[in-house]
């Protein structure tokens, strides 16, 4: 699995960082409330952190935590020199404005890549910290695509977390990118000309085999819980995998993009630690090319 290879590299580089700096890179994860799925995601991230030698700091706050109290928690982590990455697990309780919270994280510690400073760097083809899921998608594509130049890519979904940033990454690779959404007309015909299809719509079984041309690559980011005809709960993606035998490559759900997201999160944490120890400020991260696989 490609994610395992990235984690092995991160573990090696973390060991080198500790030997050089005398400390471990540290990731702080804030979880507000008791959403069961969020607990699972946080547990996986903390387990992976331990695997690669990154120190983890968990802040589990009750669901009634006020927005001001959460912001104060972030402020404390922002100024703590021993903390290199900060992640606030989404979703947050309804009374908390997620945009305000994410904007409060110091850009150089924003290992999720959601801060406007990092979004701006991505949009200009340089980068601070890249959103983890889009970066994981790009690395998966780079494992099977030799030359992106001129390829037609269709992104289904325009979220700030996945759709928009992955489109920007593909543009940086010289793809011709079409971003679609719920109001896009004649979606099947648009998808049918794509060399690369990235679907992040949150709609189980949206992309059918007849939509996808032979030899195309499908990256399925959908995570949907459904109940089958026998009443069993199962996780499925946004594409009907059983109808995509003619595709060149299809990511499985679960087990495809998800592990890559966690691997890229820890890679971002190490990168943030290296930036901090090199003395770079949040406003002077430097214009650097978006990293490529390998």
UniProtKB/TrEMBL annotation:
It catalyses: (6R)-5,10-methenyltetrahydrofolate + H2O = (6R)-10-formyltetrahydrofolate + H(+); (6R)-5,10-methylene-5,6,7,8-tetrahydrofolate + NADP(+) = (6R)-5,10-methenyltetrahydrofolate + NADPH. It holds the Pfam family THF_DHG_CYH. This is Bifunctional protein FolD. Belongs to the tetrahydrofolate dehydrogenase/cyclohydrolase family. NADP(+) binds at residues 157-159, 182, 223. Residues 131-274 form the Tetrahydrofolate dehydrogenase/cyclohydrolase NAD(P)-binding domain. PROSITE patterns: THF_DHG_CYH_2. SUPFAM superfamilies: Aminoacid dehydrogenase-like, N-terminal domain, NAD(P)-binding Rossmann-fold domains. Residues 2-112 form the Tetrahydrofolate dehydrogenase/cyclohydrolase catalytic domain. The gene is folD. Keywords: Amino-acid biosynthesis, Histidine biosynthesis, Hydrolase, Methionine biosynthesis, Multifunctional enzyme, NADP, One-carbon metabolism, Oxidoreductase, Purine biosynthesis. PANTHER family: C-1-TETRAHYDROFOLATE SYNTHASE, CYTOPLASMIC, C-1-TETRAHYDROFOLATE SYNTHASE, CYTOPLASMIC-RELATED. Its EC number is 1.5.1.5, 3.5.4.9. Catalyzes the oxidation of 5,10-methylenetetrahydrofolate to 5,10-methenyltetrahydrofolate and then the hydrolysis of 5,10-methenyltetrahydrofolate to 10-formyltetrahydrofolate. Homodimer. Pathway: One-carbon metabolism; tetrahydrofolate interconversion. Coiled coil: none annotated. Gene3D superfamilies: Leucine Dehydrogenase, chain A, domain 1 (3.40.50.10860), NAD(P)-binding Rossmann-like Domain (3.40.50.720).
